[in-house]
Structures are given as C-alpha cells and as structure tokens.
Amino acid sequence: MESGAGKHWTEEEVKALLSVWSEKNIRKQLHGTLRNKGIFIYIAKRLQELGVCRDWKQCRAKYKNLKYEYRTVKYAHNSGDATKTMKFFHDLDAILRYEPVTQLAAEETGRCSATEPQLNTSPTTDTTQ
C-alpha cells in the first residue's frame, strides 16, 4: 500500500493504525505523554511492517484527528444527539474509554474537548512546557 504525503488514509491504513494503537504498551506510552515523537516513529515503523507507508508526522496527525472526531461524536451521544457518527467509533471507544482525563475534562467544563491528556500524574509524564 503505497501512500504519498498528500493522500488520504485508506480504510485499511486506518485499521492498521488502530491495531497498533490498541496495543497496551502503545496506549500506555501515548497516555499523558506530551513529547511523543519517538512513539510515533515506532508506530510508523510498525505500520511499515504491515505494509502502510506513512511517516511519523502523518501518524501523529491521523491519531489527533481520530481522537478529536471520536470525542466530538462521544460528546454528541452523551448530549442525546445520536445522529453524529464516525466509521471507527467502536474501535476508538475500546481504545480511549479508559482515559480518565477525557472524562475529567467533560465533567469540569460540561463538554468534551480535544485536550491532550496533561493531567496525568504518572512519574514518566513531562508536564512542563
């Protein structure tokens, strides 16, 4: 599956990204990590093994976009609007539903936002900017 920088992600490419993202060690590293270039370099290499040729920046951008779209749909569903949908919602729900920061942000502000998980208190998290 050859893909250039300007090409849209195919369904197979997104499925491959989700399969790598769903691995426990990847989820753990992504959760609460602000400086995550190394993780996305690793994800890009794993995707290449699966036949998906994307660089780390493309992987990070797709990760962020999927996460934002998921939170938008999740908020709509929680607000009673079941008309909003997305293709990989259930897959993303299985991956993201255990992120406590998303729930905390929703409770504090009354809405879900695309905030990066910055409130994690694990000793490996770099919260300084």
TrEMBL record:
<dbReference type="Pfam" id="PF13837">
    <property type="entry name" value="Myb_DNA-bind_4"/>
</dbReference>
<feature type="compositionally biased region" description="Polar residues">
    <location>
        <begin position="115"/>
        <end position="129"/>
    </location>
</feature>
<feature type="domain" description="Myb/SANT-like DNA-binding">
    <location>
        <begin position="7"/>
        <end position="95"/>
    </location>
</feature>
<feature type="region of interest" description="Disordered">
    <location>
        <begin position="107"/>
        <end position="129"/>
    </location>
</feature>
<dbReference type="InterPro" id="IPR044822">
    <property type="entry name" value="Myb_DNA-bind_4"/>
</dbReference>
<protein>
    <submittedName>
        <fullName>ZSC20 protein</fullName>
    </submittedName>
</protein>
